[in-house]
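We store sequence, tokenised fold; for instance:
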Amino acid sequence: MADPRISHIELDEATILWRNADIEQERRIAIFDLIEENTFRPIRAFEAGHTGPYRLRLSVEDGRLALVIADERENLLETIILGLGRFRRPIRDYFAICDSYYQAIRRATAQEIETIDMARRGVHNDAAEMLLERLDGKVETDFATARRLFTLICVLHIRG
């Protein structure tokens, strides 16, 4: 029976050079939510008879995102490489808005926090749509999964 979902996700710890408590919390929530509910069907692996669930490892090398997809026994199924050039601005914007949001939580009014959070969600949603476009023809997934994956892609870009 097909089970097209991610059952385990790992971030390349060597890629993450710096993190703070807020970003670490974002990472934990994104991973938890992703594992709890996601849709992920790598097309080539699925067509070759690997129907899931999948283990996914994310890393960034030379400005490219590597999605290493394995089966439950950790047998490599395929690696998908995506250029991240189009994501540079959304990642930078997302970090800037997140920084404002974390500062606002500590000092701002509820209305100011809500305004910043709406902007943060907007950038996040646009980037998730872009990720869906980049995965088209490679992985079938849904918006919520792409959104959580974008959060994890951002975590891989933290430079301090």
User: Anything to note?
Assistant: The mean pLDDT is 90. DSSP finds five helices and six strands in the chain. The chain has one domain: 6-156.
